[in-house]
Predict the 3D structure of the following.
Amino acid sequence: MAPEFLRQKHIEYIQSLDNKQDELEYWLSEHLRMGGVYWGLMALDLMGARDALPREGVIDYVTSCQHPNGGFGAHPGHDPHLLYTLYAVQILFIQDALDVIDADVVAKFVTSLQDPETGTVRGDLTGDEVDTRFVYAAMQCLSILGKLDEFDVAKAVEYIDQCKNYDGGYGLVPGAESHAGQIFTCLAALAIANRLDLVDKDLLSWWLCERQLPSGGLNGRPEKLPDVCYSWWVLSSLAILGRLDWIDRQKLREFILDAQDDELGGIADRKGDMADVFHTHFGIAGLSLLGFENLEPVNPVYCLPERIMGRLKR
Ligand code: GRG
Protein backbone atom coordinates (compact mmCIF):
# COMPACT_ATOMS: atom_id res chain seq x y z
CA MET A 1 0.00 0.00 0.00
CA ALA A 2 1.25 3.50 -0.80
CA PRO A 3 2.31 5.69 2.14
CA GLU A 4 0.17 8.75 2.76
CA PHE A 5 0.93 12.13 1.18
CA LEU A 6 2.86 14.18 3.76
CA ARG A 7 1.39 17.59 2.91
CA GLN A 8 2.30 19.41 6.14
CA LYS A 9 5.85 18.01 6.19
CA HIS A 10 6.38 19.16 2.59
CA ILE A 11 5.17 22.66 3.46
CA GLU A 12 7.57 22.81 6.38
CA TYR A 13 10.40 21.39 4.26
CA ILE A 14 10.00 24.16 1.65
CA GLN A 15 9.78 26.84 4.33
CA SER A 16 12.95 25.49 5.96
CA LEU A 17 14.99 25.95 2.76
CA ASP A 18 15.21 29.69 3.29
CA ASN A 19 16.49 29.29 6.83
CA LYS A 20 19.66 27.41 5.90
CA GLN A 21 21.90 30.42 5.34
CA ASP A 22 24.48 29.08 7.78
CA GLU A 23 24.94 25.95 5.66
CA LEU A 24 27.47 25.61 2.83
CA GLU A 25 24.89 23.96 0.55
CA TYR A 26 22.76 27.12 0.62
CA TRP A 27 25.61 29.18 -0.85
CA LEU A 28 26.70 26.46 -3.26
CA SER A 29 23.21 26.41 -4.76
CA GLU A 30 23.09 30.18 -5.31
CA HIS A 31 23.24 29.70 -9.10
CA LEU A 32 19.90 27.84 -8.90
CA ARG A 33 18.11 30.09 -6.43
CA MET A 34 15.49 31.64 -8.75
CA GLY A 35 14.57 28.14 -9.94
CA GLY A 36 14.30 27.05 -6.31
CA VAL A 37 11.88 29.87 -5.52
CA TYR A 38 9.68 28.94 -8.52
CA TRP A 39 9.69 25.22 -7.65
CA GLY A 40 9.04 25.89 -3.95
CA LEU A 41 6.28 28.42 -4.57
CA MET A 42 4.59 26.16 -7.14
CA ALA A 43 4.66 23.14 -4.82
CA LEU A 44 3.17 25.26 -2.02
CA ASP A 45 0.54 26.71 -4.33
CA LEU A 46 -0.55 23.27 -5.56
CA MET A 47 -0.85 22.21 -1.90
CA GLY A 48 -3.04 25.28 -1.21
CA ALA A 49 -0.33 26.92 0.92
CA ARG A 50 1.09 29.71 -1.28
CA ASP A 51 1.17 32.09 1.70
CA ALA A 52 3.66 29.87 3.52
CA LEU A 53 6.30 32.03 1.77
CA PRO A 54 6.02 35.79 2.43
CA ARG A 55 4.59 37.39 -0.76
CA GLU A 56 6.40 40.73 -0.45
CA GLY A 57 9.73 39.04 0.35
CA VAL A 58 9.40 36.84 -2.75
CA ILE A 59 8.57 39.81 -5.00
CA ASP A 60 11.45 41.91 -3.60
CA TYR A 61 13.85 39.02 -4.10
CA VAL A 62 12.80 38.53 -7.72
CA THR A 63 13.11 42.21 -8.61
CA SER A 64 16.55 42.36 -6.95
CA CYS A 65 17.74 39.81 -9.54
CA GLN A 66 16.81 41.94 -12.57
CA HIS A 67 19.44 43.54 -14.82
CA PRO A 68 19.11 46.88 -16.59
CA ASN A 69 18.84 44.93 -19.90
CA GLY A 70 15.57 43.37 -18.68
CA GLY A 71 16.83 39.83 -18.03
CA PHE A 72 16.98 38.15 -14.62
CA GLY A 73 19.84 36.28 -12.97
CA ALA A 74 19.53 33.29 -10.65
CA HIS A 75 20.49 35.49 -7.66
CA PRO A 76 21.46 39.16 -7.19
CA GLY A 77 24.76 39.81 -9.00
CA HIS A 78 24.43 36.81 -11.32
CA ASP A 79 24.38 37.23 -15.11
CA PRO A 80 20.94 37.36 -16.74
CA HIS A 81 19.75 34.14 -18.35
CA LEU A 82 16.57 33.20 -20.18
CA LEU A 83 15.63 30.36 -17.81
CA TYR A 84 15.84 32.60 -14.73
CA THR A 85 13.93 35.28 -16.60
CA LEU A 86 11.16 32.74 -17.25
CA TYR A 87 11.09 31.65 -13.58
CA ALA A 88 11.01 35.31 -12.46
CA VAL A 89 8.06 36.06 -14.74
CA GLN A 90 6.26 32.88 -13.63
CA ILE A 91 6.76 33.75 -9.94
CA LEU A 92 5.42 37.28 -10.46
CA PHE A 93 2.49 35.87 -12.45
CA ILE A 94 1.64 33.45 -9.61
CA GLN A 95 1.84 36.35 -7.15
CA ASP A 96 -0.30 38.53 -9.45
CA ALA A 97 2.53 41.08 -9.36
CA LEU A 98 3.54 41.48 -13.01
CA ASP A 99 3.02 45.22 -12.62
CA VAL A 100 6.32 45.52 -10.70
CA ILE A 101 8.26 44.94 -13.93
CA ASP A 102 8.35 46.72 -17.27
CA ALA A 103 7.03 44.07 -19.68
CA ASP A 104 8.53 45.87 -22.72
CA VAL A 105 12.07 45.74 -21.33
CA VAL A 106 11.79 42.06 -20.35
CA ALA A 107 10.30 41.17 -23.74
CA LYS A 108 13.14 43.02 -25.51
CA PHE A 109 15.70 40.91 -23.63
CA VAL A 110 13.86 37.70 -24.52
CA THR A 111 13.32 38.47 -28.21
CA SER A 112 16.97 39.57 -28.59
CA LEU A 113 17.95 35.93 -27.90
CA GLN A 114 16.23 34.60 -31.03
CA ASP A 115 18.27 34.13 -34.20
CA PRO A 116 16.17 35.73 -36.95
CA GLU A 117 17.62 33.38 -39.61
CA THR A 118 17.14 30.01 -37.91
CA GLY A 119 14.43 30.69 -35.30
CA THR A 120 16.68 29.15 -32.60
CA VAL A 121 16.94 30.75 -29.17
CA ARG A 122 20.09 31.22 -27.04
CA GLY A 123 20.05 31.02 -23.25
CA ASP A 124 21.99 34.24 -22.74
CA LEU A 125 23.60 37.09 -24.61
CA THR A 126 27.19 35.93 -24.24
CA GLY A 127 27.00 32.24 -25.12
CA ASP A 128 25.96 30.43 -28.28
CA GLU A 129 24.25 27.45 -26.62
CA VAL A 130 20.93 26.72 -28.33
CA ASP A 131 18.43 24.21 -26.96
CA THR A 132 14.73 23.49 -27.44
CA ARG A 133 14.30 24.39 -23.74
CA PHE A 134 15.07 28.00 -24.65
CA VAL A 135 12.46 28.16 -27.42
CA TYR A 136 9.83 27.07 -24.89
CA ALA A 137 11.12 29.43 -22.19
CA ALA A 138 11.01 32.40 -24.57
CA MET A 139 7.52 31.57 -25.79
CA GLN A 140 6.03 30.98 -22.35
CA CYS A 141 7.64 34.17 -21.00
CA LEU A 142 6.35 36.30 -23.89
CA SER A 143 2.95 34.66 -23.73
CA ILE A 144 2.57 35.58 -20.04
CA LEU A 145 3.69 39.13 -20.80
CA GLY A 146 1.23 39.38 -23.73
CA LYS A 147 4.15 39.99 -26.12
CA LEU A 148 4.27 36.82 -28.22
CA ASP A 149 3.63 38.86 -31.36
CA GLU A 150 7.15 40.34 -30.96
CA PHE A 151 8.68 36.88 -31.53
CA ASP A 152 9.02 34.93 -34.79
CA VAL A 153 6.75 32.06 -33.75
CA ALA A 154 6.62 30.54 -37.25
CA LYS A 155 10.43 30.29 -37.45
CA ALA A 156 10.59 28.82 -33.94
CA VAL A 157 7.98 26.21 -34.87
CA GLU A 158 9.95 25.33 -38.01
CA TYR A 159 13.03 24.78 -35.85
CA ILE A 160 11.15 22.57 -33.37
CA ASP A 161 9.86 20.50 -36.27
CA GLN A 162 13.47 19.93 -37.35
CA CYS A 163 14.16 18.45 -33.88
CA LYS A 164 11.51 15.75 -34.40
CA ASN A 165 12.83 12.18 -34.55
CA TYR A 166 11.71 8.95 -36.30
CA ASP A 167 10.25 7.73 -32.96
CA GLY A 168 7.93 10.74 -32.74
CA GLY A 169 9.98 12.35 -29.97
CA TYR A 170 12.13 15.48 -29.89
CA GLY A 171 15.73 16.16 -28.87
CA LEU A 172 17.89 19.06 -27.74
CA VAL A 173 18.86 20.07 -31.29
CA PRO A 174 18.14 18.52 -34.71
CA GLY A 175 19.43 14.92 -34.82
CA ALA A 176 19.72 14.57 -31.02
CA GLU A 177 18.17 11.59 -29.22
CA SER A 178 14.57 11.91 -28.02
CA HIS A 179 14.42 12.81 -24.33
CA ALA A 180 11.26 13.29 -22.25
CA GLY A 181 12.42 16.69 -20.95
CA GLN A 182 12.96 18.04 -24.45
CA ILE A 183 9.72 16.43 -25.63
CA PHE A 184 7.82 18.40 -22.97
CA THR A 185 9.44 21.68 -24.02
CA CYS A 186 8.71 21.05 -27.73
CA LEU A 187 5.11 19.96 -27.17
CA ALA A 188 4.40 22.84 -24.81
CA ALA A 189 5.94 25.34 -27.24
CA LEU A 190 3.86 23.87 -30.08
CA ALA A 191 0.77 24.07 -27.85
CA ILE A 192 1.45 27.78 -27.17
CA ALA A 193 1.92 28.29 -30.93
CA ASN A 194 -1.30 26.35 -31.55
CA ARG A 195 0.62 23.95 -33.84
CA LEU A 196 0.07 20.54 -32.19
CA ASP A 197 -1.03 19.37 -35.65
CA LEU A 198 2.71 18.85 -36.39
CA VAL A 199 3.00 16.15 -33.71
CA ASP A 200 2.87 12.43 -34.55
CA LYS A 201 0.47 11.89 -31.65
CA ASP A 202 0.04 8.11 -31.59
CA LEU A 203 3.71 7.31 -32.19
CA LEU A 204 4.83 9.77 -29.52
CA SER A 205 2.20 8.64 -26.99
CA TRP A 206 3.49 5.07 -27.36
CA TRP A 207 7.07 6.20 -26.77
CA LEU A 208 5.94 8.20 -23.72
CA CYS A 209 3.89 5.46 -22.07
CA GLU A 210 6.76 3.00 -22.58
CA ARG A 211 8.72 5.16 -20.13
CA GLN A 212 6.83 3.49 -17.25
CA LEU A 213 8.90 0.76 -15.58
CA PRO A 214 7.72 -2.19 -13.44
CA SER A 215 8.40 -0.06 -10.32
CA GLY A 216 5.68 2.32 -11.56
CA GLY A 217 8.21 5.15 -12.01
CA LEU A 218 8.95 6.83 -15.33
CA ASN A 219 12.33 7.26 -17.02
CA GLY A 220 13.32 9.97 -19.49
CA ARG A 221 14.53 7.67 -22.30
CA PRO A 222 15.02 3.93 -22.85
CA GLU A 223 17.39 1.98 -20.56
CA LYS A 224 17.56 4.77 -17.95
CA LEU A 225 16.60 4.78 -14.28
CA PRO A 226 13.16 6.04 -13.22
CA ASP A 227 13.11 9.47 -11.63
CA VAL A 228 10.27 11.39 -9.95
CA CYS A 229 10.87 14.45 -12.15
CA TYR A 230 9.69 12.49 -15.20
CA SER A 231 6.32 12.35 -13.45
CA TRP A 232 6.20 15.85 -14.87
CA TRP A 233 8.10 15.74 -18.16
CA VAL A 234 6.40 12.53 -19.38
CA LEU A 235 3.01 13.02 -17.77
CA SER A 236 2.51 16.64 -18.84
CA SER A 237 3.41 15.55 -22.40
CA LEU A 238 0.76 12.83 -22.25
CA ALA A 239 -1.69 15.36 -20.79
CA ILE A 240 -1.01 17.76 -23.68
CA LEU A 241 -1.69 14.85 -26.06
CA GLY A 242 -4.86 13.92 -24.13
CA ARG A 243 -3.46 10.46 -23.27
CA LEU A 244 -2.97 10.58 -19.49
CA ASP A 245 -4.81 7.28 -19.19
CA TRP A 246 -2.08 5.47 -21.16
CA ILE A 247 -0.07 4.88 -17.97
CA ASP A 248 -0.80 3.04 -14.71
CA ARG A 249 -1.72 5.99 -12.49
CA GLN A 250 -1.86 4.09 -9.18
CA LYS A 251 1.60 2.58 -9.67
CA LEU A 252 3.10 5.96 -10.51
CA ARG A 253 1.43 7.50 -7.46
CA GLU A 254 3.01 4.82 -5.28
CA PHE A 255 6.44 5.45 -6.83
CA ILE A 256 6.19 9.19 -6.08
CA LEU A 257 4.88 8.74 -2.54
CA ASP A 258 7.61 6.18 -1.79
CA ALA A 259 10.21 8.83 -2.61
CA GLN A 260 8.97 11.16 0.19
CA ASP A 261 11.23 11.89 3.17
CA ASP A 262 8.92 10.85 5.99
CA GLU A 263 11.02 12.64 8.61
CA LEU A 264 11.89 16.05 7.16
CA GLY A 265 9.46 16.24 4.25
CA GLY A 266 10.32 16.80 0.59
CA ILE A 267 10.51 14.31 -2.27
CA ALA A 268 13.64 12.74 -3.80
CA ASP A 269 14.36 11.47 -7.34
CA ARG A 270 13.60 7.97 -6.06
CA LYS A 271 13.09 6.08 -2.78
CA GLY A 272 16.04 6.27 -0.39
CA ASP A 273 17.70 9.32 -1.98
CA MET A 274 17.86 12.80 -0.52
CA ALA A 275 14.88 15.10 -1.07
CA ASP A 276 15.28 18.39 -2.91
CA VAL A 277 12.94 21.18 -3.95
CA PHE A 278 13.13 20.34 -7.70
CA HIS A 279 11.85 16.78 -7.21
CA THR A 280 9.40 17.92 -4.52
CA HIS A 281 7.80 20.28 -7.03
CA PHE A 282 7.73 17.87 -9.96
CA GLY A 283 6.47 15.01 -7.79
CA ILE A 284 3.61 17.16 -6.49
CA ALA A 285 2.86 18.54 -9.96
CA GLY A 286 2.74 14.96 -11.26
CA LEU A 287 0.33 13.95 -8.48
CA SER A 288 -1.81 16.95 -9.40
CA LEU A 289 -1.94 15.88 -13.07
CA LEU A 290 -2.95 12.40 -11.89
CA GLY A 291 -5.77 13.92 -9.83
CA PHE A 292 -4.56 12.56 -6.48
CA GLU A 293 -4.19 14.08 -2.98
CA ASN A 294 -6.71 16.87 -3.47
CA LEU A 295 -4.12 19.18 -5.02
CA GLU A 296 -4.80 22.33 -7.04
CA PRO A 297 -4.99 21.50 -10.76
CA VAL A 298 -1.81 22.33 -12.70
CA ASN A 299 -1.67 23.52 -16.32
CA PRO A 300 0.41 21.00 -18.33
CA VAL A 301 1.68 23.55 -20.88
CA TYR A 302 2.75 26.38 -18.55
CA CYS A 303 3.43 24.36 -15.38
CA LEU A 304 1.44 26.96 -13.46
CA PRO A 305 -1.71 26.68 -11.35
CA GLU A 306 -4.72 26.22 -13.68
CA ARG A 307 -6.56 28.71 -11.43
CA ILE A 308 -4.55 31.68 -12.73
CA MET A 309 -4.50 30.80 -16.43
CA GLY A 310 -7.51 33.01 -17.11
CA ARG A 311 -5.26 36.00 -16.38
CA LEU A 312 -3.05 35.16 -19.34
CA LYS A 313 -2.87 37.98 -21.88
CA ARG A 314 -1.70 35.61 -24.74
C1 GRG B 1 8.65 25.83 -16.55
C2 GRG B 1 8.46 23.35 -16.24
C3 GRG B 1 9.24 24.49 -16.73
C4 GRG B 1 10.44 24.29 -17.35
C5 GRG B 1 11.31 25.33 -17.91
C6 GRG B 1 14.25 24.08 -17.80
C7 GRG B 1 13.11 23.74 -18.68
C8 GRG B 1 12.15 24.83 -19.08
C9 GRG B 1 12.92 22.50 -19.16
C10 GRG B 1 13.83 21.37 -18.86
C11 GRG B 1 13.46 20.17 -19.67
C12 GRG B 1 14.43 19.05 -19.43
C13 GRG B 1 15.52 18.88 -20.41
C14 GRG B 1 14.24 18.22 -18.37
C15 GRG B 1 15.06 17.05 -18.06
C16 GRG B 1 15.91 17.29 -16.84
C17 GRG B 1 16.72 16.09 -16.50
C18 GRG B 1 16.31 15.26 -15.37
C19 GRG B 1 17.81 15.82 -17.21
C20 GRG B 1 18.64 14.66 -16.90
O1 GRG B 1 19.15 14.16 -18.09
P1 GRG B 1 20.16 12.95 -17.98
O2 GRG B 1 20.56 12.56 -19.34
O3 GRG B 1 19.25 11.92 -17.23
O4 GRG B 1 21.25 13.28 -17.03
P2 GRG B 1 18.65 10.53 -17.63
O5 GRG B 1 17.39 10.47 -16.80
O6 GRG B 1 18.38 10.51 -19.11
O7 GRG B 1 19.66 9.56 -17.18
Summary: Residues 33-46 form the longest helix (14 residues). Residues 83, 133, 136-137, 181-182, 184-185, 220-221, 224, 227, 229, 233, 303 surround geranylgeranyl diphosphate (CB under 6 Å). The CA atoms of residues 46 and 231 lie 15 Å apart.
